[in-house]
Amino acid sequence: MIALKPAKGHLLVAEPTIIGDVAFNRSVVLLANHSDTGSVGFILNKVLDFTLKDLIPELKFSFKIYNGGPVEQDNLYFIHKVPHLIPDSIEIANGIYWGGNFEAVKELVNREMIDENQIKFFLGYSGWDADQLNAELDSHSWIVTTNEDQTGLIERPYDSFWKDKMLQLGGEYLLWCNAPENPSYN
């Protein structure tokens, strides 16, 4: 599982050695796109302190907003598993889709035809230039894994996601499961 190459639909799991990077420390990133020209992903486990309704007051219901990454944090992005309800969606992999018609999303939210088990919203995204991700992989900043959760990725609890990945990796990573976020606090 550790020797995978990055690919669209794979997950990037932050190595425990990423300390002090607020965005990427203990993060799990879904690669929404990966090619020779670069990569785009969304951090799946960094919830923000405000909701979708805070950003778009005309919505009747709130959804959590996640920090998708440090790029374009003033833009809203979303992944989902209901392409039959959201036109113009782009499949990432394994039944997970990126984007689509946002007017349709707003209507689905207001009519309670979609819930947080089907869609996840992000401010910003994580992006890498052509060789940047490879350099970070070479410096052991990330572990590339497959997405075993398939479409369950969206409803997966965010607060234990990174720890669960450490448990799955086993070996030397087990030590990090119960370590404080900043080891100097120990």
UniProtKB/TrEMBL annotation:
InterPro entries: AlgH-like. Pfam families: DUF179. Gene3D superfamilies: VC0467-like. Signal peptide: none annotated. This is YqgE/AlgH family protein. The lineage of its organism: Bacteria, Pseudomonadati, Bacteroidota, Flavobacteriia, Flavobacteriales.
